[in-house]
């Protein structure tokens, strides 16, 4: 095989290998225009693998096969450039299709997970709103507890538990005693109770320093907005700011300033 023919075969094989990797993914369901106007990153990665990795794999495999067969069939030889031209695109096509098939399975599994999670969330939310005490009896606050729905159910139950302290997410009529017990048992989730409007003021007061130092903005905001949070906590915070000669800065200062303008919940 002449040098010119070898160069042409290798060049064509490499380019075809890259393109066939993309075609293989498209045959498996990949949409190269799905990210428009952004580029097809997945297609670009497959193309690069097709033009770089696949030809090298073909060269290695062809060399091994030639050595194994040379003693048995000396006349049977497939030139490396021809192998790249013929086998490179074929291997790339299979590779691209396999990658897309794997991604399809992953996407389907994720879709099934979220469907199951949504169903489980609705079921647990209905149970909890009807019977808040179920959280304590069945230990919903324990991360490792098993669930009949599997992983999706464990995730959904955790979401329902966390949302149950936020009336804007899920209205659950916890009693003050239940919230106290939850704060004692659910050590890693105990701060959540400060978000619930039925949380006893003294419990919020005891957790104020812990929540304020947690750096969890949403929880701090919920505690500040909670009508059950004792007013004197805001006044003490404001007094400390004034004594330190610090101007109103940051969202916490502003939120407390606004909260002081509102009346506290009368118990």
Low-pLDDT stretches are none
- Provide the helix percentage: 55-70%
Mean pLDDT: 89
Gyration radius from CA atoms, angstroms: 32 Å
Order of helices and strands: HHHHHHHHHH
Strand content: under 5%
Separation of the first and last Cα atoms: 95 Å
- Largest beta-sheet details: none
**Number of H- or I-type helical stretches:** 10
Shape: elongated
**Class by SSE composition:** mainly alpha
Detailed description of the structure:
The chain has helices at about 5-25, 40-70, 80-130, 135, 150-165, 175-185, 200-210, 215-225, 230-245, 250-260. It is mainly α and about 270 residues long. α2 (about 40-70) crosses α3. The mean pLDDT is about 90.
How would you summarize this macromolecular structure in one to three sentences?
The protein is an all-alpha fold.
Q: Main traits of this protein?
A:
267 residues, single chain
Give the SSE map:
Blueprint: H1 3-27, H2 41-70, H3 80-130, H4 134-137, H5 151-163, H6 176-185, H7 201-212, H8 217-225, H9 231-243, H10 250-259
Helix pairs in contact: 1-2, 1-3, 2-3, 3-5, 8-10
């Amino acid at each position: 095989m002449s040098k010119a023919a070898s160069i042409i075969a290798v060049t064509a094989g490499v380019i075809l290998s890259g393109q066939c990797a993309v075609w293989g993914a498209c045959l498996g369901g990949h949409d190269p225009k799905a990210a428009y106007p952004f580029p097809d990153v997945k297609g670009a990665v497959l193309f690069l693998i097709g033009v770089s990795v696949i030809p090298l794999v073909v060269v290695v495999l062809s060399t091994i096969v030639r050595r194994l067969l040379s003693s048995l069939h000396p006349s049977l030889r497939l030139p490396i450039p021809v192998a790249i031209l013929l086998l490179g695109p074929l291997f790339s096509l299979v590779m691209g299709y396999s990658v897309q098939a794997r991604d399809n399975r992953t996407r389907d599994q994720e879709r099934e997970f979220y469907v199951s999670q949504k169903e489980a969330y609705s079921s647990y939310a209905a149970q909890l709103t009807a019977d808040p005490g179920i959280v304590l009896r069945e230990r919903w606050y324990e991360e490792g507890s098993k669930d009949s729905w599997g992983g999706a159910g464990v995730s959904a139950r955790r979401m329902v538990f966390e949302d149950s302290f936020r009336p804007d997410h899920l209205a659950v009529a916890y009693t003050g005693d239940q919230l106290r017990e939850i704060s004692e048992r659910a050590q890693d989730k105990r701060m959540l109770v400060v978000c619930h409007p039925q949380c006893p003021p003294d419990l919020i007061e005891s957790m104020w320093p812990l929540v304020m130092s947690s750096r969890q903005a949403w929880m701090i905001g919920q505690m500040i907005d909670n009508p059950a949070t004792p007013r004197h906590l805001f006044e003490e915070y404001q007094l400390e700011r004034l004594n330190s000669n610090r101007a109103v800065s940051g969202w916490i200062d502003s939120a407390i300033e606004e909260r002081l303008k509102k009346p506290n919940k009368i118990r």
